[in-house]
Amino acid sequence: MTAARLLAHSGWEVEVAGPVPTSTRWVTLSARTVQLINDIWDSDIVTAATHYRLASRRVIWDTDAAAEVLEPLVALESSSLAATMLEKFSREHLGSVSSGSTLSAQEPTPARSAQFVIDARGRNSNFPRRYSGRRQMRVWEPISIDHGAAEFAEMHAGIGYWCFLFPLGSKQLCLQIATPEPEISGTLSEKIKNDASDHSLLAKLVEKVPDLFDLATSVIPIAPSFHTQPIRASRLPVGDALMTLDPLCGDGVGHGVKSAILAVAVANSAAVTVSTEDALKHFELRTTRAFASHLKHCRGYYSKIRHAAPWEGEVESIAQAMEKLTTSNRDEGSTLLVLEDPDAGHSAKNVCHVKRPYLKQA
Ligand SMILES: Cc1cc2nc3c(=O)[nH]c(=O)nc-3n(C[C@H](O)[C@H](O)[C@H](O)COP(=O)(O)OP(=O)(O)OC[C@H]3O[C@@H](n4cnc5c(N)ncnc54)[C@H](O)[C@@H]3O)c2cc1C
What we know:
The protein is α+β, with helices and mostly antiparallel strands and 362 residues long.
């Protein structure tokens, strides 16, 4: 939706195809990501969606005591944000939304002839992708519990798992547990119960919901993945369709928005300054670097996680994925991209020419 909005504002005729999202997923957004989204959408669109504000994060990751990160977070139900954006976009660009139509599961085909197709179908976009490991996350439906109006998210690592909990208002908690192997062993629940320290949200949860580990969950692969399909104007992937990030970085949404901005810069540049081929090469290079940087962070985190031994295989997979990326991550000179089409009626001060490395300058 962010790519659609930016393109429409640059003077492109945009058609949005696909169903209104319905599946519920709770994520947390940093203040920086909230700001980025609100700036682009020209309103407080994040808090117009279903959300709860949190004051901080408590992290027990390595051998040190819990660290309190006093950075506000917003717990957000992501499909409600997508629906809010779609509604605003439809209002502002009447006729640009082909409701109910669904892009093909295989190759995106626009309803009418189009110069660019932005593929934002998420991690299920069905294009080949390479995963950097086998780790997975077990995600609970919001759990009803009186947690005493906690206003912080909690992240901590134990033997063979790390977990992330955050409140949704005063009566519900979200719980997510990551493990290195696709199979969750039967002894894991006992370990987690024993690990829960006195004042943690996890301890409250374990105490008040004894059947916690019998509740329904979904299991999602969380090792970062990167598309392996050539980037083309007829299918320019953004967000999770382009790359999925390990949720431990907590910024999948922010990265998705940044890739959308870059895709728009590619389309605008191809319209006015550089060949489509050069603009796409630039996109490939920038996004490959962003993915390489994420892998580097992951390697650091999983190497210094409490009780790092169970994660050794994952650290090895991350290292292998980094090696594969570096061969295709060469700098081939400078490309000038524009963020907005200067011919689209904007005043000159709104035209932003960006030289590589544009992400670093932004
Ligand atoms: C367990 C877990 C926890 C996470 N926690 C966080 C977090 O705390 N913070 C954070 O920032 N990120 C988090 N992320 C990552 C974040 O959820 C994603 O990066 C983000 O949702 C990607 O947005 P997207 O729009 O690219 O994809 P999605 O949100 O998956 O949206 C894709 C959309 O495409 C639609 N679609 C699919 N197929 C078709 C089709 N054929 N035709 C038309 N439409 C289609 C879908 O209905 C959906 O609405 C987490 C991820 C996981 C797995």
